[in-house]
Design a protein that fits this description.
With 297 residues, the protein is mainly beta. The chain has two domains: 1-30; 36-292, Immunoglobulin-like. It has two helices and twelve strands, in the order αβββββαβββββββ. Strands 1, 2, 3, 4, 5, 6, 7, 8, 9, 10, 11 and 12 form a twelve-stranded mixed sheet that branches. Bound molecules: calcium ion (4 copies). One calcium ion binds next to loops.
Length: 297
């Protein structure tokens, strides 16, 4: 091999290495950067039954993702580090709080199951997100701000010049007791259902989100892409949308991690994707990614 040939080969190898590295980070493989986790939703012709029961075989064609808080500073499995919430701390162990996410879709719906390991299950209200809960976040247009702008500048606010009502970013919460909450709460077109069920050492929550609840087109004035609200495209095979799942762990009842002083057991919150320092639950840019696999994939 001549010197110039060898130089060419080394350059080529370096370039391949760079491209592999680039594709790995683009796909979210093994990255700890917020907003880069990737999950695959497989197509099914046998939709799961949304009954809070994880039946044998029901989710077998899904590709599950297991999440725990053992590396709380970085995704996957990030625990918010919030000075104002001193008792929000990482789970003691996977037996204290950890979870596995399953996703499937068919022609009409996205299905999500979250199987939660939890040593003390509480759902004493009144706010579902302060009970043991599962929070599913969906960012159809992969543009930030939709959920938060709708919450702070919705159509209920007479002083808001451009009220935000869209299907481009939202969060769905269901407690272990089956109480639900939709954020933002001002949009009746965000349609979904869920069912919670207890199981030994934890609980299961199954969700069904109609694809017609998810808009993949950005119509928002705050991202500079204002379009008439009638512009709508639901997720298609081959699409990637923003997606995240978090589990709240209330192990003492009452206000959970909003309490001021430590209680007997650890209250916590673990998210698949996001950032620990600077955590903001409605930061859509920090949510992970969900790929709608084509039917033959
Ligand atoms: Ca089921
Ligand atoms: Ca969005
Ligand atoms: Ca938007
Ligand atoms: Ca708990």
């Amino acid at each position: 091999m001549t010197a110039s040939n060898r130089s060419f080969c080394i350059h080529w190898l370096l370039l391949v290495g760079f491209l592999l590295d680039l594709s790995a980070s683009a796909l979210g493989a093994e990255t700890r950067i917020p907003g880069k986790q990737l999950m695959v939703a497989r197509f099914t012709t046998k939709p799961p039954i949304i009954d809070g029961v994880f039946s044998v075989g029901e989710w077998k064609s899904a590709t599950p993702i297991h999440v725990d808080g053992s590396t709380p500073a970085t995704a996957p499995g990030v625990v918010p580090n919030i000075p104002d919430l001193p008792v929000l701390v990482p789970p003691d162990s996977p037996a204290d709080s950890s979870f596995t996410i399953y996703t499937l879709y068919d022609n009409d719906n996205l299905y999500v199951a979250v199987d939660v390991i939890d040593d003390f299950v509480f759902s004493d209200g009144p706010l579902p997100f302060l009970d043991d809960d599962v929070e599913v976040m969906i960012d159809g247009d992969r543009q930030p701000g939709d959920a938060w702008f709708a919450i702070i500048c919705g159509d209920f606010d007479p002083f808001c010049p451009n009220p935000v009502v869209n299907n481009e970013g939202f969060k769905l919460t269901t407690s272990a007791g089956g109480d639900t909450l939709t954020d933002p709460g001002n949009n009746p077109n965000i349609v979904w259902e869920s069912k919670a069920g207890l199981r030994p050492h934890g609980f299961v929550i199954e969700f069904r989100v109609p694809l017609n609840s998810i808009n993949t087109i950005d119509t928002s004035w705050f991202s500079g892409n204002f379009r008439p609200e009638s512009v709508f495209r639901r997720p298609q095979p081959g699409d990637i949308i923003g997606f995240n799942v978090a589990v709240g762990d209330d192990d003492n009842g009452g206000p959970s991690y909003f309490r001021e002083k430590p209680a007997a057991h650890t209250d916590s919150f673990t998210a698949w994707d996001g950032r620990s320092i600077g955590w903001f639950v409605f930061a859509e840019a920090d949510w992970g990614n969900l790929y709608f696999a084509r039917r033959n994939e």
